[in-house]
Amino acid sequence: MSSGLDWMTDLAPVHAIRRKVADRANLPNRMELAGRQAPPAREEQRVNGEDDQARFARVVLPHLADAYALARWLTGDGADAEDVVQDACLRAFRGISGFGEGNARAWVLTIVRHTAYTWLGKNRPATLVVTDDLEAVERAEVARRGTDAEAETPETELIAKADAASLEAAIKKLPPPFRETLVLRDVQGLDYKEIAKVTGVPIGTVMSRLARARQRVMTTIAKEHHDAAG
Asked: What is the rounded distance in angstroms from the CA atom of residue 161 to the CA atom of residue 223?
């Protein structure tokens, strides 16, 4: 029996994105996208001896699966996620010469996140929430919990035990700021500093959003179990 999260291990969309990005950006063919050296470029296109195509293949392509997963969680639809990642890859390609050899995964996911929110703003504005109103509550939550955000909590234990379909449904109900934070941490394994960089908020806000996201997911799953038992 397939689970609700089977799409996370399905690489077909990732391969499709690779092909479409290659076609749209005139990038190397599929063999080159898989890791072979791209053809030599003009000297002015090179950064430290590496042309833009080879740099893109080295920096961006290894993180396409994570990029698609984040876009899929944010948009809630596989085809929409493919469109978002394609656009994000083109943005990344245009800006690849400015990448400073830092955390490539965080850099790519930041672009994907921005692209996803732009797409949502144009296509589903009602799904977006204003995050400014959350800040005061989040600061209070950080003060209450302190800085030990890594510790196991009842929320994380219940989430770990939940079946995949229930978990996906509960995560989809989260407001985007909470959803992306939980996905980046509990699904994709980014640390708090990386999440803060991707989302553009302080680490304390990341901690608060993660705690509140886990609590909401736990509440949703618990209610589902209660309703099923009743």
From this structure: 15
Tokens of 108: 């790519």
Nearest to 193 by CA among 130, 128, 62, 102: 102
- Residues with Cβ < 8 Å from 33, sequence gap 6 or more? 18, 22, 27, 57, 61
Distance of CA 186 to the CA centre of its chain: 11
| pLDDT score for 223 | 82
Determine the pLDDT at residue 92. 94
Domain boundaries, the chain: 6-126, 132-229
Average the pLDDT over 105-114 and give the result. Answer: 95
Residue located via tokens 């995560």: 171
- From CA 52, how far away is CA 95, in angstroms rounded? 9
Rounded Cα gap, residues 26 and 175, in angstroms: 37
Hey, which residues does 47 pair with through a beta bridge? Answer: 50
pLDDT higher than 70, residue 87: yes
pLDDT score of 129 more than 60: no
Nearest Cα neighbor of 97 from 54, 61, 136 is 54
Where do we find the tokens 């977006």? 128
Question: What CATH number does the domain located at 132-229 have?
Answer: 1.10.10.10
